[in-house]
């Protein structure tokens, strides 16, 4: 849990060096590596029977420098800005994307997994495994994307932009076991970034809080504390998908960082970027330009005052990598579960005087630094592809 409330620069920076390494296909820890896009990866290999074990304890004391990239798991409802989050992760040398797990929201889990595989393949990351997570909210047994989600991300989640289907399939292991296995193996060397419905991540955190408390950070995109929501005046889309799971996460004693609309609406991408991507002359550049032009068009209709599209999910990845991009306040959050404010993220009134807080809520962002880093890194990646 975090210390007293107060504005700070982020959620890690503890100076501990990571253990490095990855899991081989038999689940054994093997050597670390630096080239994140040329090695085969796996978030784990146990076949769905992991119990809560102790964290692998990747924090070797005594060094302030990380020599190996940290491991990253993205839990996505792949959607347009989720695809941008994949691109930013692959373009960032500080992290090794070891897995994408699939949640729902912009699209179903099944559609999101197909989208993730296709985007990873297009970006040359066809060795990154994807895992299916829980495909519906607590209290329901199914999920269908809302009309609002379809308007913003398109029926296929990728704005109808043309991309070859992947020939790969999701792994047979569940997302829940993949995340727990990686958390137990890598400990503080693992960053987890959920950017869709929180059902799967809340499930693993509540099931094994001691293991999940041992990861480097859980930095989720979702919520709105100081600004209006984007589903209604109080509620942000990711939290709206499964308010109960989000509330469970906030109350299960696992530290998190919230990157909500408070900051993501201050980081916008414009058509200058998509023009530049299209002019690269690569298939990846054209696909990302077409997809993001669709997204910007949706924003021009719904929130023209922003001047572009919100870089929601990529900002969560960037804040996990470099917490100095955001300033945060510590709060014990709750999610309203009933009534007209159902889905609202707000401080739990019963925990206001607690000295320890479980969530660092981003309320400030160095938007200029993030957007220019995003444009530079993603532009280079798209230019490298054929
Ligand atoms: C969030 O909701 C989804 O539409 C986006 O992908 C993002 O994760 C923004 O509220
Ligand atoms: Ca998302």
Largest sheet strand order: 5-4-3-6-7-8-14-11
- Just name the CATH architecture: Alpha-Beta Complex
Number of structural domains: 1
Mean pLDDT comes to 88
Specify the structural class.
Answer: alpha/beta
Low-confidence stretches: 3-40, 44-49, 56-64
List the helices and strands in order: EEEHEHEHHEHHEHHEHEHHEHEEEEH
What would you call the shape? globular
Number of strands: 14
How is this structure best described in words?
The chain is of the alpha/beta class. It has a single domain, classed as Inosine-uridine Nucleoside N-ribohydrolase, Chain A (Alpha-Beta Complex), CATH 3.90.245. It is built from 13 helices and 14 strands. It has helices at residues 80-90, 109-122, 147-153, 175-186, 199-207, 209-212, 237-241, 243-250, 261-264, 271-279, 283-302, 312-321, 367-384, and strands at residues 22-23, 29-30, 70-76, 95-102, 130-132, 190-194, 217-221, 256-259, 268-269, 309-310, 326-331, 333-335, 345-347, 359-365. Strands 5-4-3-6-7-8-14-11 form an 8-stranded mixed β-sheet, sandwiched between helices. Strands 1-2 form a two-stranded antiparallel ribbon. A two-stranded antiparallel sheet has the order 9-10. Strand 1 (22-23) and strand 2 form a beta hairpin. Mean pLDDT is 88; it is low at 3-40, 44-49 and 56-64. The structure holds beta-D-ribofuranose and calcium ion.
């Amino acid at each position: 849990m975090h210390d007293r409330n107060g504005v700070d620069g982020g959620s890690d920076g503890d100076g501990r060096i990571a253990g490095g390494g990855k899991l081989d296909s038999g689940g054994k820890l093997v050597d670390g590596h630096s080239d994140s896009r040329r090695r085969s990866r796996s978030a784990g290999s146990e076949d769905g029977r992991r119990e809560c074990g102790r964290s692998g304890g990747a924090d070797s004391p005594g060094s302030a420098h990380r020599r190996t990239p940290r491991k990253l798991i993205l839990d996505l409802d792949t959607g347009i800005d989720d695809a941008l989050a994949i691109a930013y992760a692959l373009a960032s040398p500080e992290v090794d994307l070891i897995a994408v797990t699939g949640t729902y929201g912009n699209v179903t889990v099944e559609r999101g997994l197909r989208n993730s595989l296709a985007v990873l393949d297009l970006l040359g990351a066809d060795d990154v495994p994807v895992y299916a997570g829980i495909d519906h909210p607590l209290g329901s047994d199914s999920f269908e994307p809302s009309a609002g989600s379809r308007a913003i991300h398109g029926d296929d989640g990728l704005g109808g932009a043309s991309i070859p289907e992947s020939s790969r399939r999701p792994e047979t292991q569940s997302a829940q076991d993949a995340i727990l296995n990686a958390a137990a193996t890598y400990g503080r060397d693992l960053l987890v970034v959920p950017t869709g419905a929180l059902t799967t991540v809340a499930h693993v955190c509540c099931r094994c809080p001691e293991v999940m408390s041992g990861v480097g950070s859980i930095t989720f995109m979702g919520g709105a504390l100081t600004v209006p929501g984007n589903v209604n005046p109080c509620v942000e889309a990711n939290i709206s998908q499964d308010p109960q799971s989000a509330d469970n996460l906030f109350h299960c004693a696992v530290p998190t960082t919230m990157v909500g609309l408070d900051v993501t609406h201050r980081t916008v991408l414009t058509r200058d970027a998509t023009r530049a991507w299209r002019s690269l002359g690569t298939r990846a550049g054209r696909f990302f330009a077409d997809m993001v032009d669709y997204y910007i068009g949706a924003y021009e209709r719904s929130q023209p005052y922003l001047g572009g599209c919100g870089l929601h999910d990529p900002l969560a990845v960037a804040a996990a990598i470099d917490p100095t991009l955001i300033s945060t306040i510590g709060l014990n959050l709750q999610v309203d579960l009933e009534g007209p404010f159902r889905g609202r993220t707000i401080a739990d009134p019963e925990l206001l005087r607690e000295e320890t807080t479980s969530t660092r809520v981003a309320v400030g962002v160095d938007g200029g630094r993030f957007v220019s880093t995003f444009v530079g890194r993603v532009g280079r990646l798209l230019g490298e592809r054929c």
